[in-house]
Amino acid sequence: MSFTVSAVLLFGIAAFFAVRTKATGAGAALVVFLFGFFAAGTGAYEPIRDLVQATADAVSALAN
User: Fold this and answer.
1) Measured between alpha carbons, how far is 17 from 64 in angstroms, rounded to an integer?
2) Which among 1, 20, 40, 44 is least surrounded, fewest beta carbons within 10 Å?
3) pLDDT tens across 14-31, in order?
4) Which stretch of DSSP H or E encloses residue 21?
5) What pTM did the predictor assign?
């Protein structure tokens, strides 16, 4: 059984909690930055999506 979740949804939830908990730092800034690009679908969308996909594939390969 496979379960997929949209990257926009994941980054949206992470951004919500980063703002809600008043988290600061590079991690929270990166989450909000990536969420903006995923949501907007700008020209930077493709390279960022490819980077996130490659990271997810690498993490998935580690589990195997």
Assistant:
1) 30
2) 1
3) 878 877 787 667 777 787
4) none
5) 0.50
Angle (nearest 5°) at CA 4 between 9 and 39: 25
What three-state secondary structure class fits 2? Answer: coil
What residues have CB less than 8 Å from 31, skipping those under 6 apart? 11, 14, 15, 18
Q: Does residue 56 contact residue 4 with C-beta atoms inside 8 Å?
A: no
DSSP string covering 5-46, please? --HHHHHHHHHHHHHHTT--SHHHHHHHHHHHHHHHT-TTHH
What band does 4 get if pLDDT is binned at 50, 70 and 90?
Answer: low
Query: Can you read off the two tokens belonging to residue 30?
Result: 């990166």
Q: Give the DSSP letter of residue 60.
A: H
Instruction: Reduce the DSSP state of residue 40 to 3 states and report it.
Output: helix
Q: Say if CB 63 and CB 36 are below 8 A apart.
A: no
